[in-house]
Amino acid sequence: MSIRVASVPTDHVYVRHLDPPDGPATVHRLPDPTSGGSAAGAPWWPPRVLEPDWLLENADRFDVVHVHFGYDAKSPEDLVRWTGVLRDLGTPLVLTVHDLRNPHHEDAALHDAQLEVLLEAADAVLTLTDGAAAEILRRHRRPARVVPHPHVVPLERVARPREPHDGFVVGVHCKSLRASMDPLPVVETLAEVVPTIPGGSLRVDVHTDVMTGTSPRSDARLVERLLALSADRRIDLAVHDFFTDDELFDYLGSLDVSVLPYRFGTHSGWLEACHDLGTTVVAPDCGHYADQRPVLLHRTGDPGALASAVRRAHAEGPLPRATVEGRRAERVELAATHEQVYRGVLARGVLACTS
């Protein structure tokens, strides 16, 4: 029997790749209800499944609710009401903890409180790494089942060999300066060390809204320094709007090393895409990145450790790359695990109702 899941969200690369690579799927995830808007480029944002009225109006369409992302704007009180409706309906809640610290929030307090509500209400908890599971148990007293992050890059592209290029290209992408980022110290360090590496060049990407000052997190000092470093030919500066998926994969594939300029975090889809494409990741030790995939770690905020990690990347060559066979097998395992989790919470609900 097929299981109907109201996923929050469904149209996200992580969630799409929880299905087996070759059908048929025994789990049916409902399409995302449209929000009437398109905030953050997603027509399902903010997720309507997180509205109590939507649950009540559509309760006959789903068997399980599975939350991944999308509760950023919900207060803890909102989530208490929402989980109360699920409890009244007798609908199980599955939660995957992707972030123990919201990368868009300067302060951790709200996300901590949101997680506390969801973790207390969840009938099953999943996360992506052993380190995150240990932190969830320590902070929130809930055990979490560890499941790997599926591939981000399409399998047909994972199968392609890397395009050869000259030199040793190190990249830092500032994106639109979300709260978890502190790229300027990283860029300053790399602008010193990368030119000392044979064939080394440093590419720095940043979204147009940062450079034009229209981003709410635009940083005048960062803009000034990037322009100065570019004028001195110490960095190759690329200013553009958001990449399409294909543009992102072309960009990541053109790098030998991608340096994550984070000051806090948990897991990374960017890291997974680099693993798919054979690009080495240099990451800070503030999250659980090294539990997720092979990376070169450095102490967060330590310029010497960052410089050593980049030199090591050059000396040792690329880290192991994902294979199509491995990613396909992972998809099969993920699909089976999620079906098992869904059937488990449904069976416990039936037992509770009949006991």
From TrEMBL:
Segments of this protein annotated with the region Disordered: 14-42
GO MF annotation, one: glycosyltransferase activity
Ranges in coiled-coil conformation: none
Listed InterPro entries: Glyco_trans_4-like_N (IPR028098)
Keyword terms of this UniProt record: Glycosyltransferase, Transferase
Transferase as UniProt keyword: yes
Entry-linked Pfam families: Glyco_transf_4
Keyword Chloroplast: no
Glycosyltransferase subfamily 4-like N-terminal domain: residues covered: 12-150
Gene3D superfamilies: Glycogen Phosphorylase B
EC number in record: 2.4.-.-
Enzyme class: transferase
The protein's name: Glycosyltransferase
